[in-house]
Amino acid sequence: MYKNKMVLSVIMSLALLVSACGTKPAEQTSGNAGSGEQPAAATQASKLDAIKKAGKIIVGTSADYPPYEFHKEIDKKDQIVGFDIEIAKEIAKDLGVTLEMKDMKFEGLLPALEAGNIDFIISGMTPTPERQKSVDFTKIYYTAVQRVVVRADDKAKYTTVDSLKGQKVGAQKGATQETIVKEQMPGSEVKAIGKITDLIMEMKTKKIEALVVEQPVADAFLQKNPDLVYADIKLTTEDSGSAIAVKKGSADLVEAMNKTLDRLISDKSIDKFVTEANALVEQ
Ligand code: ARG
């Protein structure tokens, strides 16, 4: 596979070279000759083409996030399912390529994208201004609110942000929730952990007193863990939307993905995927 990529990039560089030779001198004086940087238009055209040529697109996700993406045993086989995964499949289908999935910690997704190990991220990822500096996002396809989870026994004890002063509050590492705890609960100590499943365990074993997580995900876990409940604590964050991330400078890929998202939003497929994913959580 690596070799194929090499061959492909050699062919592409040759093609670039040939086309560059054919252009008028005025167009060559862009200032980045020899810097290894390609003209934006060429880079943009090549990403989508390269994926189509390879016949495959690689998605990165952190499958600890029901109903977005999670592991489920189906037909005696461990599978990654969820509404994000259904969206990813539709994107691959519209591009006419097969979908390959890579499961990793949420915090590893952006570095993997920038390193070129994956072609896009779908992982309930919020397009924050900070992230927008390093990657490009599609439009938002789903929005959720942030909630605080506590143990049922502590519901009366923890009713305000202040009541959690000096206590440990959990959040997923590298996720917006980590920032939310730091900014909105400055009196609490944030405990950032890579996988949501481990954070739930931390709650159950009383290593943390509260957990900040998106409502659909909290719903999924609360349903299976009656010892955990929503706290009556209001956070002042805005709704957090989810979008797909791609490497910077792949405008044609973003455009193609937005087309698929438009279709899935307008024909209510995403709503259907969410309902189906929730049903899988309940099983
Ligand atoms: N929306 C939050 C963020 O973008 C959390 C996403 C976590 N996703 C996951 N698959 N664990 O940071």
UniProtKB/TrEMBL annotation:
InterPro entries membership: SBP_3_CS, Solute-binding_3/MltF_N
Keyword Glycoprotein: no
Entry superkingdom: Bacteria
Cross-referenced SMART domains: PBPb
Domain Solute-binding protein family 3/N-terminal: residue ranges: 56-277
Family: Belongs to the bacterial solute-binding protein 3 family.
Keyword Cell inner membrane recorded: no
Signal sequence interval, chain numbering: 1-20
Cellular compartments annotated: Cell envelope
Cellular component per GO, a single term: cell envelope
Protein name (database record): Polar amino acid ABC transporter amino acid-binding protein
A UniProt-annotated Pfam family: SBP_bac_3
This protein's UniProt keywords: Signal
